[in-house]
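Worked example 3. Consider a protein that binds S-adenosyl-L-homocysteine.
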Amino acid sequence: MLRSSLSSCLRRSVIPILFATSVRSQNFCSSSSQTQIPPPPPPREGAEENHYDSRPTASISIDRSGLYNHPEHSHEPSSDSELVKHLKSIIKFRGGPITVAEYMEEVLTNPTSGFYMNRDVFGAGGDFITSPEVSQMFGEMIGVWTMCLWEQMGQPERVNLIELGPGRGTLMVDLLRGASKFVDFTKSLHIHMVECSPTLRKVQYDNLKCTDEAVNEEDHTKRTISMLSGAPISWHSTLEEVPSGSPTIIIAHEFYDALPVHQFQKAPRGWCEKMVDVEENSSFRFVLSPQPTPATLLYLMKRCKWAGAQEIAKVEHIEVCPQAMDLTHQIAKRVSSDGGGALIIDYGENRIISDSLQAIRKHKFVHILDDPGTADLSAYVDFASVRHSAEEASEDISVYGPMTQSQFLGSLGINFRVEALLQNCTEEQAESLRTGYWRLVGDGEAPFWEGPDEQTPIGMGSRYLAMAIVNKKQGAPIPFQ
Ligand code: SAH
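Given these inputs, the predicted complex is written out as structure tokens:
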């Protein structure tokens, strides 16, 4: 009771101060950019029945770096990209197809040629657009949520603020700018960015106005500070690498959807796994495993235990994301030992996901197997599985939600924020704010839109969901009470 009234007091005090800040001068972008919301489902991509031998796939361990460096093993036409050659060499040396999850992981995060590794993929000039890039209000509202949780945590003097998959760092920039008047909060922050892409790390460093300062002249140790708030900031490849031991707040926006999924398909012989193989003519194709794979036995069975028989009977396809289960387990353990909480926002559903994997290149949906490494791959997040994974990991945490993004941002006061910003901006900014607001909280096509049809803003308000995992000591976080 006390905690909930504290946080509503804070919300009342945070929002008016925050709203005194102004419109950011960047990131107003074309309303036509594609978000990662999938279009109506395309004709189902059934995998072909198996055309490969049934040697076990997951039990063979392959040194991929070695494979990648041996051009003499490749007899493919030279027009193949490095990543395509690499994928084909794995399939060739494996002596059979690879799982969709392996394919997705290589395509997105292969250290030399993965989709995210070498370029800035966001915004009008990139491949897709995300909520922080749509409007500054998104990061500001996440800032309100973060400050309220910090308040509920008892205003600790030191907090690890961890962002998973920060993209351009725009969410963190808007969060810090919005929170700049709350000095006790900003002084407590130690920011940790979990990012695999060296290119995006550099973009984040620049956008957060970072500078390196010497800690010890003698041994040349340095630390990096974001000049936006004076907070120390560091980069890590995984959540495990972030030091534990301090109260923690974790933000994961559109991170889970990039984690590799296994795809399973119901066949007359039972559940089989969809795999990626190379055809005679050297292009990629889907095939179906002749029998249950190790992933079928391990992950599909685990996921199905959390579902009702009726739910499973209704679907012909199931996607399972073991890395999401693993990550959630780690988050729950950390929140339970260090205190604090995590916020996960992504598009998805609160039940088994059937067949959602999609590819987007230059704001258009393309085939998943087309020119791998040049299009983003992402899949719906199975929030029911996230909840089960967290609850299984620790009894000291509570899971809240999911609720729609529109409810989440609405309850945090985004409508007041947009009104405040509209009072002090140019016509161009006002149009951008209105379309941005619609895209964040609206549902379907914006009714007020008078521009070209193909640029009609599409709302993400009900397709994107928010879920919180918090230490029980904190009580329910806003706005999940
Ligand atoms: N949160 C940002 C970006 C979302 S895109 C936004 O909303 O704009 C996904 C982000 O996660 C990118 O920064 C990508 O480089 C990073 N990423 C994807 N897979 C990753 C992995 N396995 N480990 C670390 N970072 C990853």
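Take a moment to read the result before moving on. DSSP finds 16 helices and 20 strands in the chain. The two ends are 10 Å apart (CA to CA).
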